[in-house]
Design goal:
The complex is a heterodimer of chains A (about 500) and B (about 220). By secondary structure, chain A is of the alpha/beta class. In chain A, about 45% of the residues lie in helices and about 15% in strands. Chain A is built from 19 helices and 23 strands. Chain A has an 8-stranded parallel beta barrel with strand order 6-9-10-11-13-15-18-19, surrounded by 7 helices. In chain A, strands 2-3-1-12 form a 4-stranded mixed beta sheet. Chain A starts with 10 loop residues before the first helix and ends with a strand. In chain A, about 45% of the residues are buried. With about 220 residues, chain B is α/β, with parallel strands linked by helices. In chain B, strand 1, helix 5 and strand 2 form a beta-alpha-beta unit. Classes of the chains: A alpha/beta (about 500), B alpha/beta (about 220). Chains A and B meet through helix 15 and helix 16 of A and helix 4 and helix 5 of B.
């Protein structure tokens, strides 16, 4: 049988968390900055306080709206040739994080700032991997003007992969650009709505706050039915109670409240029940992504997601290490395995380290192998007459051949690939063979694989009219100023906080 | 016309080798010989090329160990039972990379590693006489003398049985035959140093290395 899912709550405990979250939603509510969002919530029966911006969600409203949240959806690549399904039983793996630096052993610090070339290379690597299904705007192109990053990345996405893509739904103007560009690529809005290409990221700010820029973008993503991840990044002890049950009650209210908003924006819009929450290190105040508690929180969210019958998203392969060292290895595998065992339906953060702030393409290809191991583990042990293989044992053991083994048995050939996972990068050779091949460590072997992939990867040729239209659209985006964005979002302030703590400031 | 036919014979044999269709491959080779579509040395050459292809695929990790060994076993049966007799019937000698007598030494019953070496050597064009396990010095030497071997391969998986590798070499010396054969040793507890210490001609860490070693020694 397959491995059983880890459960961190008993049925009563699950009910207790749910019930406490409902109390929070109906008695405290969520602070919703956007006036238009508050208005439509009021229309649907939410209690709105326009001075404090808090919106209270009666339990009946929550129950009603959650009914239409889909329990499965498909994501498609730009040309539609590649797709995969996310449902309440799937285990899919993807990237995501906020890497602003990349591993560089030639640099004194071991890392350097990421540039657009790195963003492109990461897209290409993911395109070539077996187990990593989707890349996102995570490797940050520091050399690209902030206001054009989304359009530049979408252009590189369509040129360099057959897999879907993810973007933060940061504002209505940028989100609308994403939909417009995707519509050019796929041949129209209808096709985009029917076969979604993008994963959106909508991060409530803990505690209990939906910033204007996020709901602005969320409205666009839900309008086009692009599956959007609702993922609070609460830190136990800092932006949520230190007790994990308290953090889960609070973030559950944030996710459920946001899911209600999604359905009010557009009935049947697909969302992920997500989390990136972890803990605060009490010695330094830093966040600790590689912590074992992050695994527990993720498992809690996965169980809550099953309770509401919504596909879940959680981080795996997370580590706080600054090096490609043992800590990096054990934390990334521990969080990955726990997320899979917890039954998370969309597990992210492949290729990152230092709490996802740094990317290593080497880790990305290693994670592909780790995911293969995890998937194999989750399959468990299959037991039937064929796998018990009593006839084969009898045949081999009683063979009159000199020396007995199962290697050349048809049974071995038939089952070897499904029974035994063969990692590509782990070294299992004899010492002398390993030495002869240069005595390389796994990072060196991973680098070779990265180089090989990049060398063989050719960009897709776009049809001329599509290419022209995209370039024309990108020119339009380029011509905008920061104030154009502020106006579009109704934000005439000096600066605004981005999803994961990066501050956007106008470039000087 | 002839060329087209040769290609199709090769494709057919390749398919049967890869699918481990021993009986069908035997029948097919017999039919080819009977109809004079190709000679036994021709077929041996074709099979040699196919096994080289299979070996390359194994090294590129496109296929795995069972697939390689299974194909080698199929081919071995066909060569032993169909092609060798056909060649002998014409009074000719078979072309070979070299003749190897291989076995696990006295007091040791571990066979898998040694069988892998045998399969790999066979796949690379060597003629392999696999004597099995718990083989005595006398059995190794008698077989080598009988078949006119070039190389004797001694396997041992136990620290306790390693010493018997040395005894085979001593026995060869005693009979004045040491220079007639190259002696190679292998197995988990053995090493390059051990091989030198007991006066062997070579040591390899795994089956792939063993092939390279023998090619060097020949």
């Amino acid at each position: 049988m397959k491995l059983k899912k880890i459960e961190v709550f008993s049925k009563d405990e699950l009910e207790a968390i749910h019930s406490a979250s409902m109390t929070l939603l109906s008695e405290v509510g969520i602070k919703v900055d956007a006036q238009d969002t508050r208005d439509i919530l009021k229309e649907k029966g939410a209690m709105v306080d326009d001075s404090s911006h808090f919106v209270k969600f009666p339990e009946s409203l929550v129950k009603e709206q959650l009914k239409t949240v889909p329990d499965s959806f498909k994501l498609h690549g730009p040309d539609g040739s590649f797709s995969f399904e996310v449902n309440t039983n799937s285990t899919q793996f993807a990237t995501i994080g906020t890497p602003v630096k990349i591993y560089d052993p030639t640099n004194k610090k071991g890392v350097r700032k990421t540039v657009l070339t790195d963003t492109i290379e990461q897209i290409k690597i993911v395109d070539s991997l077996e187990n990593i299904m989707c890349s996102h705007v995570d490797v940050w192109p520091n050399d690209v003007s902030y206001i054009t990053i989304h359009s530049q990345c979408i252009y590189q996405w369509v040129k360099n992969t057959k897999k879907p893509y993810g973007l933060g739904c940061l504002g209505r103007l940028a989100s609308q650009d994403m939909m417009n560009m995707a519509s050019i690529i796929v041949g129209g809005e209808e096709e985009l709505v029917e076969k979604p290409r993008f994963v959106g990221f909508m991060n409530p700010t803990s505690p209990l706050h939906l910033p204007q820029i996020m709901t602005n973008g969320f409205a666009i993503f839900t309008k086009y039915k692009q599956p959007t991840i609702i993922a609070p990044e609460a830190l136990a002890g800092a932006s949520a109670p230190v007790t994990l049950a308290g953090l889960l009650t609070q973030t559950n209210a944030e996710i459920v409240g946001s899911a209600v908003v999604s359905q009010i924006f557009n009935l049947g819009a697909p969302v992920f029940f997500g989390t990136v929450s972890h803990v605060t290190d009490m010695r330094s105040g830093n966040s600790a992504m590689g912590s074992v508690e992050m695994g527990l929180i993720t498992a809690g969210i996965a169980q809550l997601a099953r309770f509401y019958n919504i596909p879940s998203r959680g981080p795996g392969a997370g580590t706080d290490s600054k090096l490609l060292d043992l800590q990096n290895g054990y934390e990334r595998f521990q969080t990955l395995m726990l997320a899979a065992q917890a039954g998370v339906n969309y597990i992210t953060c492949a290729g990152t380290y230092e709490a996802t702030l740094v990317e290593a393409l080497e880790l990305l290809v290693i994670d592909d192998d780790l995911v293969g191991m995890v998937k194999r583990a989750m399959e468990g042990i299959k037991v039937n007459d064929d796998t018990i293989a009593i006839d084969v044992i009898k045949k081999v053991a009683t063979s009159d051949k000199k020396g007995v083994n199962f290697l050349a048995e048809p049974h071995t050939r038939k089952h070897m690939k499904s029974e035994l996972y063969m990692p590509r990068l782990a070294d299992r050779s004899r010492r002398s063979t390993w030495q002869k091949k240069g005595a390389k460590n796994i990072i060196e072997r991973a680098r070779e694989k990265v180089d090989k992939i990049l060398e063989a990867h050719n960009p897709t040729e776009l049809e001329k009219n599509v290419e022209d239209e995209l370039l024309k659209y990108m020119k339009k985006v380029e011509a905008r100023t920061f104030d154009d964005y502020r106006k579009a979002e109704g934000l005439m302030v000096d600066s605004v906080t981005l999803t994961d703590g990066i501050e956007i400031k106008e470039e000087k | 016309m002839q060329v087209v036919e040769k290609v199709s014979i090769k494709d057919k044999i390749k398919e049967l080798v890869i699918e481990w269709e021993t009986e069908r491959l035997k029948e097919y080779c017999q039919l080819i010989l009977k109809n004079n579509e190709a000679t036994a040395p021709n077929l041996l050459k074709i099979i040699g090329d196919i096994m080289k292809f299979v070996g390359d695929q194994f090294e590129q990790e496109e296929i795995f160990l069972p697939e390689l060994i299974g194909s080698a076993e199929t081919v071995k049966v066909v060569i032993d039972e169909v092609l060798d007799p056909a060649i002998r019937a014409t009074g000719e000698e078979k072309e070979t990379m070299g003749k190897v007598v291989i076995g696990t030494v006295e007091s040791d019953v571990h066979s898998i590693g040694k069988d892998l070496v045998g399969s790999f050597l066979f796949s690379n064009g060597f003629e392999v006489y696999n004597l099995g396990v718990e083989v005595t010095a006398d059995q190794f030497i008698s077989k080598a003398e009988e078949v006119g071997a070039d190389i004797i391969g001694l396997s041992s998986l136990l620290t306790m049985s390693m010493d018997f590798q040395k005894q085979v070499i001593e026995e060869l010396k005693k009979r004045g035959l040491r220079d007639k054969y190259k002696v190679i040793v292998g197995g988990s507890p053995t090493s390059e140093d051990w091989a030198k210490k007991i006066g062997a001609d070579g040591w390899a860490d795994d089956a792939i290395e063993a092939v390279e070693l023998l090619k060097r020694l020949m």
